[in-house]
Structures are given as structure tokens and as C-alpha cells.
């Protein structure tokens, strides 16, 4: 884990052979989403929010078995490689997610750097099986199609998604 001097924007992304000299490097244990769901018998979430400072694609790769049960992903997507050459860009994340039947549904908050350049965008991706999706008739990429058990979540970013899912009878209140 790399920590900048201001501790804002730490990342587990490999920063390459020459990380910024003033960034501290700490060794921390990490678990994949699939491991947590399987080993701790946690119900797969209906919604996952990822804001992991350039590690979003790595987190998704560690959730391959869980993703078919997820209905909504809220992901901070990068439009510039702010954390070095390993930072996955929006189109790379969207293309990877397409193999799991997810598509861009909406956009949320943005982050701009000091000169005003758009660097990242919160993106809402829907599983094609989600009742809110308009791409339910698209050919499926995965053979698994069982929806996850309904769950209730909370948080300000979830209100719109929960409202839409409730209207379609997919979550409990």
C-alpha cells in the first residue's frame, strides 16, 4: 500500500520501479471479494461501490465468482492514468465488465485536478439481468444467470438505485 504525504489518495496499485520518493510503502494483508463471500459465507451484495484509487479493476478481478450475483456496480473510473501506467482507464474497465454482462447506466460525481482536467468519474454499471436495465435482451456473456437474494443497503449514493430496484420489486425495504 502506498501512502502519499497527505494520506489522501493512498493506493495498492503497483506504482512501478520508481514510486514518488515522498510516498510511504506499507505491507498490508488483502482479501478478494470472492474469498470473503466464500470463506466467511457472506451473501453476495446486490450493489458494490469501488473507490480504490486505481485498483478498481484488480478488485473486480478478485470478484469473478461474485459478479454474476451483483446487480449494480458504482465504480470510480479513471480518464487519466493518475496512479501511473497501471491505472485502468474507464474504457478498459467497461470492456472487462461487458464480459460479465454489465453496461454503463449512469454517471455520478467527477474529480478534476488542479488545472480543471477531468481525471475520474463515478460510473453506475448495471447487470443486464437487473430489472432496471434496458439491455436485458442482449445476448448473455456468462452462463450463470441466477439473481442474488434481495438485500437492503443504505447510503446517500444508493438512494436512486434502491428506489428503482424497489419499483421493480427487487429489494426489500
Give a structural overview.
There is one protein chain. This protein has 173 residues and is of the alpha+beta class. It is built from 4 helices and 6 strands. It has one domain. The strands form 2 sheets. A 4-stranded mixed beta sheet has the order 3-4-6-5. A two-stranded antiparallel sheet has the order 1-2. Strand 5 and strand 6 form a beta hairpin. The model is unreliable at 143-154 (pLDDT under 50).
Tags for this model:
single chain; 173 residues; alpha+beta; four-stranded mixed β-sheet; two-stranded antiparallel sheet; 6 strands
- First and last CA, distance: 37 Å
Rg from Cα? 17 Å
Q: How many helices does DSSP assign?
A: 4
Structurally, the number of domains stands at: 1
Residue windows where pLDDT falls under 50 for at least 5 positions: 143-154
Instruction: Write the element-wise H/E pattern from the N-terminal end onward.
Output: EEHEHEHEEH
Query: Residue share in helices?
Result: 10-25%
| Largest sheet, strands/sense/barrel | 4 strands, mixed
Query: What is the spatial order of strands in the main beta sheet?
Result: 3-4-6-5
Task: Describe what is shown at a glance.
The chain is an alpha+beta fold and 173 residues long. Helices cover 18% and strands 21% of the residues.
What's the helix and strand layout?
Layout: E1 2-3, E2 24-25, H1 33-39, E3 47-50, H2 56-61, E4 72-78, H3 90-98, E5 102-112, E6 118-127, H4 159-167
Parallel strand pairs: 3-4
Antiparallel strand pairs: 1-2, 4-6, 5-6
Amino acid at each position: 500500500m502506498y501512502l502519499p504525504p497527505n494520506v489522501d489518495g493512498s493506493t495498492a496499485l503497483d506504482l512501478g520501479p520508481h514510486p514518488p520518493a515522498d510516498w510511504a510503502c506499507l505491507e498490508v494483508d488483502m482479501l478478494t471479494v470472492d474469498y470473503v463471500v466464500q470463506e466467511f459465507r457472506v451473501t453476495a451484495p446486490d450493489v458494490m461501490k469501488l473507490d480504490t484509487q486505481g485498483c478498481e479493476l484488480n478488485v473486480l478481478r478478485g470478484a469473478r465468482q461474485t459478479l454474476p450475483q451483483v446487480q449494480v456496480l458504482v465504480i470510480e473510473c479513471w480518464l487519466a492514468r493518475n496512479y501511473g501506467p497501471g491505472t485502468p482507464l474507464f474504457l478498459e474497465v467497461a470492456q472487462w465488465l461487458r464480459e460479465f454482462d454489465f453496461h454503463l447506466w449512469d454517471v455520478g460525481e467527477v474529480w478534476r485536478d488542479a488545472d480543471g482536467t477531468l481525471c475520474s468519474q463515478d460510473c453506475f454499471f448495471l447487470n443486464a439481468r437487473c430489472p432496471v436495465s434496458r439491455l436485458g435482451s442482449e445476448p448473455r456473456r456468462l452462463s450463470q444467470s441466477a439473481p442474488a437474494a434481495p438485500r437492503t443497503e443504505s447510503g446517500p449514493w444508493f438512494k436512486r438505485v434502491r428506489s428503482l430496484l424497489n419499483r421493480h420489486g427487487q429489494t426489500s425495504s
